[in-house]
Amino acid sequence: MQVITANRLLDGEVVWLGLNDEWVESVSDARVFDGKEAVAEGWALGTAAEKDQKVVSVYEMAVIEEDGQLVPVRLREKIRAAGPTTHPELGKQAQAVSA
Amino acid sequence: MYRYDEFDHGFVSQRTEQFKDQVRRRMAGELSEDEFKPLRLMNGLYLQLHAYMLRVAIPYGTLNGRQMRKLAHIARTYDKGYGHFTTRQNIQFNWPKLEDTPAILEELAEVEMHAIQTSGNCIRNVTADHFAGAAADEIADPRPYAEILRQWSSLHPEFSFLPRKFKIAITGAPHDRAAVQVHDIGLQLTRNEAGEVGFTVFVGGGLGRTPMIGRKVRDFLPEEDLLAYSEAILRVYNLYGRRDNKYKARIKILVHKTGLEELKSDIEAEFERIRHGVLRLPEEEVRRIEAYFAPPPLEVLPETSTRVEARRASDPAFAHFLKHNLNPHRVSGHTSVTLSMKPIGGIPGDASDDQMDKIAELAERFGHDEIRISHEQNVILPHVKLDDLSALYDEAAVAGFAEGNSGLITDIIACPGMDYCALATARSIPVAQRISERFGTPERQAEIGELKIKISGCINACGHHHVGHIGILGLEKKGEEFYQVTLGGSANENASIGEIVGRGFSSEEVVDAIEKLVDTYLDLRTNGDETFLDAYRRVGEQPFKEALYGTG
């Protein structure tokens, strides 16, 4: 299972391509692209958003489902999806707690 | 310290205006990311793991209270309340917004700071000994020369698109605290038989995936030839350095492949051609720049302070601080104080906005308004009266930067690693924190003595692991963090590259492995004065290898 990720142009926030071509701030809301063709479609949407000044640095990453939630496979992407492990009060992990 | 003249002010504000317009055009869609990326990098703006990152230059690590307060203000207003001092004596902000960066650069320009050439394939911020202008063992203050190099290299049209980045370091003392031999150009101030000041010149040092110690190309380069000779080196590099493979593009590879003698003769030939031209440094200009760095008026005082000595005897934490965090000053009754940005279990090099404000205040009250950032990620007040140490220590302790651990096992260099960096393959900071906690008692640290641990989160070696007495390199293996350990590195005047001791360790194992190495050293050292590095150089890797992997 792949998802498309990027950083938002204006503030650099890590985002994933969600449903309805929206860029979402939580990996659990990302749209899953399964299979070569679907991933190609995701790439096309990402590249278009990059051209449209919405995001930068688009790439695909692998996820798995754990307890009904989408979770990145690689540690790098886990940290990117949460925030610095050294600062639990910063990044998305902090917003998740305060929400 | 150096003050901007009209030209400097004009140059920096023009650059800020340019970047403001570039950001506007990027946001308006007039520039694509491919077009914008080199422009933002030339202004120190990276895109990292979680957000943009802005790297601000602190030329030769020197700044004053006003500038430090501005950094605190930027951390508070535009970032998340902290900054990170780097191994190139710079500061990084980890969370700026693209749309705020023009305003940040304008604020920096107000206090004569900028982010120019903190990235890109150009000559980067020139680094220097952090005790420059104060150290008792200094031949001359290296900062005037660093400033001259800064002026020469800033937007140098010929050297703005080099094959790869280019780093210059300079030290004014025989004991090299600026790691000059692991820089593209390393300069060590020296005197010739006539007593004139000049430079021993090293070329082709560097870390990264191919670590190399710089090769000496000149025993004595006269002061007046500093720029002409540097230009000759850069020209030879710019002409022959590889541009087809970025991993082979640094000057160290050119030195290695071409051979020292051939390269030296190329440099000398170019130097001969240009040495009598416009780059010859007029003596009056050197003296003019030097005047900016004139030391503050310091009264010669007794060599010891009775106030300090009385407290030393009764306060062990203060005694540790005095023992490890002071560097001998050239003026009796004074010292250079290292404020430790390595609290036990803390993040190496991080400072909060409040801490930055406090450092500014302490520098103004006790340190003639002078501050230095060391490449070891600490903060230095170079000119402090011995009599003021007690009061300074008390305030630093409250602010959280009075750990007496300078040069000890918990004074760890660590790159941001995978907690921040888009290139990293493993985390560095958490490993540093766990080592710091493991060895953090004052008694244990003092017993172990001088031991430099340096940690990088990828092969690019921003954490200088190759020159750590113990170096740790974080890699990824089968999806897990994995740490390779090197022994015997050093970045001083007897520089050496550490050697890999054997197979690496998981994140869970690595701190235990470090403890085994330390225990092995404590068992085999001849006495308490033999440092880890000395012992390693005496006995070699075998006992350490056996301790880690057994005899089989």
Task: Write up this protein.
The complex is a heterodimer of chains A (99) and B (552). By secondary structure, chain A is α+β, with helices and mostly antiparallel strands. Chain A has one domain (2-92). Chain A has 3 helices and 5 strands. Chain A has helices at 36-51, 75-82, 92-98; strands at 2-8, 14-17, 23-24, 55-66, 69-72. In chain A, strands 3-2-1-4-5 form a 5-stranded antiparallel beta sheet, covered by helices on one side. In chain A, strand 2 and strand 3 (23-24) form a beta hairpin. The longest helix of chain A has 16 residues, at 36-51. The N and C termini of chain A lie far apart (27 Å). In chain B, the strands form 4 sheets. In chain B, strands 16, 17, 18, 19, 20 and 21 form a 6-stranded mixed beta sheet that branches. Chain B has a 5-stranded antiparallel beta sheet with strand order 1-2-5-4-13. Chain B has 4 domains: 6-110, Sulfite Reductase Hemoprotein, domain 2 (Alpha-Beta Complex), CATH 3.90.480.20; 135-292, Sulfite Reductase Hemoprotein, domain 1 (2-Layer Sandwich), CATH 3.30.413.10; 306-399, Sulfite Reductase Hemoprotein, domain 2; 413-549, Sulfite Reductase Hemoprotein, domain 1, CATH 3.30.413.10. In chain B, strand 1 and strand 2 (52-56) form a beta hairpin. Chain B is globular. The chains are: A alpha+beta (99), B alpha+beta (552).
